[in-house]
Design brief:
With 135 residues, the protein is of the alpha+beta class. It contains 4 helices and 4 strands; from the N terminus they run H-E-H-E-E-H-E-H. It has one domain: Alpha-Beta Plaits (2-Layer Sandwich), CATH 3.30.70.120. The chain is globular.
């Protein structure tokens, strides 16, 4: 009984939070995430952003202008310019987003990282949900 209770806790907690959110209209921290994806140039960034949107893996993708980047590659310090994508999506889609981007990205090891969203505008989160296909 103790083992079963321990194993069921995450599921029961998640369900309780979803019910609380539905009843009160409050946001469940971490439901959505922002993913960061680096791109070599603006055209690649636009192509990847469009592909992400076409697959409904995000509700919105911002394309940030050129940034200077320093990084280690094969033991050497490299310097380049990159374009950064900010991808607003449901946290549950991060794995699928990452796999898809790796399959179409020209970099050998593209940067695809995400951070969960803790708080924000509830109307924006509602729009995010309405803009994306359900899991």
């Amino acid at each position: 009984v103790m083992t079963l209770s321990f194993l069921m806790y995450p599921v029961l907690r998640s369900l309780a939070l979803q019910v609380h959110s539905a009843v009160t209209g409050s946001y469940i921290s971490g439901t959505h995430s922002v993913a960061f994806i680096n791109c070599l140039n603006e055209q690649i960034a636009k192509d990847i952003a469009r592909a992400i949107m076409d697959k409904k893996l995000a509700a919105c993708v911002n394309i940030l202008p050129k940034t200077s980047t320093l990084y280690f590659w094969k033991g050497e310090i490299e310097e380049s310019t990159e374009i950064l994508l900010l991808v607003k999506t449901r946290t549950s889609k991060i794995s699928e987003l990452s796999s898809y981007v790796r399959s179409i990205h020209p970099f050998e090891i593209p940067e695809i990282i995400s951070l969960p969203i803790d708080q924000g505008n509830p109307f924006y989160f509602k729009w995010l949900e309405e803009s994306m296909a359900r899991d």
